[in-house]
Fold this sequence. Notes:
It contains six helices and six strands. With about 190 residues, the chain is α+β, with helices and mostly antiparallel strands. The protein folds into two domains: about 10-70; about 95-193, H-NOX domain (Alpha-Beta Complex). Strands 3-4-6-5 form a four-stranded antiparallel beta sheet. Strands 1-2 form a two-stranded antiparallel ribbon. Strand 3 and strand 4 form a beta hairpin. The longest helix has 27 residues, at about 15-40. It starts with 11 loop residues before the first strand and ends with a strand. Mean pLDDT is about 85; it is low at about 1-10.
Amino acid sequence: MIVRRQTGREAEVHGLVNQAIRDLAVNLGGESMWADIKAGAGVDVEAFVGMQAYPDDVTYRLVASASEILGIPESDVLQAFGRHWILYTAKEGYGPLFEMMGRTLPDFLQNLDAMHARLSLSMPELRPPSFVCEELDDGRLRLEYWTDRAGLAPMVVGLLKGLAARFKTQVEISHASAGGHEEFTIRTVGAAA
Length: 193
C-alpha cells in the first residue's frame, strides 16, 4: 500500500497523469478494465482534463485498484506506469520538450529540474519532484529523487527504464532510501535490442 505524507496542504496532480493511467489500463485490458479500475477506486470522473488539478488521493486510489484487479503489487503497477508515462507524454506533445532537454540519458537526467521549471510556467500549481544527477567515475549515474510524495520510487524506476528505451540503451537500476530522499544508481549495460 502506498503511504502518503501529509504536508499541511492537499497535494494535487494534473489530470494528464490520470489520463496516462487510463491509457495504460485501456492498452492492457480495454475500456472495461478502465471502468473496473475506476469503480474499484470509487472514482466517478467521466474524463480527466489534462491541465486540471485533481487530489493526489484519486491517483493513489487508481493505482491501488489497478493492483487489485491485475493481481500484482502496487509497486509493479507504478513501475509499469512510469515506463508508460515516458511513451505517453512524448505522444501527447511533450516529445519536443524531451528533445530539448538532452540527447543522451545523462544529459536528460541532469536537466530534469529545468524541464519541470519550464512546465511550471504553464502549470503554476505543479509541485514536481526535484532530481540531482551525478556521473560517477566508473560511468554509472547516481540520481537523487526528492519529493514530499511517499511511495513513488517504483515509478521512478519505470521512468528510468522508459527513458533508457527512448535513448536506445539498456540499463540496470538499483535503489536505496537515503535520509529524506531516494537514490538510484543507473548502469548502462548495452544498446536496446
